[in-house]
Write a structure and sequence with these properties.
By secondary structure, the chain is an alpha+beta fold. It is built from 8 helices and 4 strands; from the N terminus they run ββααββαααααα. β3 and β4 form a beta hairpin. The structure holds zinc ion.
Length: 242
């Protein structure tokens, strides 16, 4: 997904487990940054914990999309979740092609859209149950767990839809930026890479301006730093090109 810092390195507080045979490592900063982002939702610990759970599931599903696609080509993957998102790694082995790399990159947002669709269907089903005054819907919405479930449904919808869409923007190192770079590279090689970072710089700059203009400071800073990162790589590549 996003890789601002590269591999954050292992610590003794890392959480390790595997999903469908794919090793997953969670760096402690993941929980800390998640808690900081979640503290916007309210002061209650249960709300922040609920938000971190939604973030964790969403990012894991996104990375699993990349990882399962890589494994389907016979390239063993692993997943790291860290302070600013996460990434799925794989070593491309025998039979590497550009179209396979593009498919692996696209599979992350696709998995997120799949989770969005499941949660959205459940949401519609519950809403219909409430409208039809079904007994199960009344039991559900009057239970103590309902505010938490309702919050989780909205967060999962929001994260998986909008995060997936933002991730597909042609801004390196987001998934869309990597796809854009692969596509332009296929045609023009070095000048294609330069153009991909030029597109990334402009797109990220426009998105940052939009966020700052609507007082969304976190989004503004994030896309501002992406614009700067693309500008830096762009100037480095141009220098090498001349
Ligand atoms: Zn991704």
């Amino acid at each position: 997904m996003m890789q601002f810092l590269g591999d954050p390195g292992t610590t003794r507080y890392d959480l390790r487990f595997s999903v469908m045979g794919i090793p997953v490592r969670v760096h402690p900063l993941f929980w800390l940054v998640g808690a900081l982002l979640g503290s916007n939702s309210g002061p209650e610990l249960s709300i922040v914990a609920n938000w971190i759970g939604c973030l964790f599931v969403s990012i894991l599903v996104h990375e699993l999309g990349h990882a399962l696609a890589a494994r389907s080509f016979g390239w063993p993957p692993d997943i790291v979740l860290h302070g600013f998102g996460g990434f799925a790694r794989y070593s491309p082995g025998y039979g590497y092609t550009r179209s396979k790399a593009i498919w692996i990159t696209f599979a992350g947002p696709l998995a997120g859209f799949g989770l969005f669709a499941i949660v959205y269907c459940a949401h519609l089903w519950i809403r219909a149950g409430i409208a039809e005054e079904q007994p199960w819907a009344q039991t559900l919405t009057t239970s103590g767990a309902w505010p938490g479930i309702n919050f989780a449904i909205l967060q999962l919808e929001w994260i998986n839809l909008f995060w997936g869409l933002f991730n597909l923007l042609p801004v390196f190192p987001l998934d869309g930026g990597q796809i854009c770079s692969e596509l332009l590279n296929a045609r023009e090689n070095h000048s294609g890479r330069i153009r991909a970072h030029q597109i990334g710089m402009i797109t990220a700059g426009v998105v940052a301006a939009y966020f700052l203009n609507s007082s969304r400071i976190f989004g503004g800073l994030m896309f501002g730093s992406l614009a700067y990162q693309n500008y830096q790589i762009y100037t480095q590549l141009r220098r090498g090109y001349r």
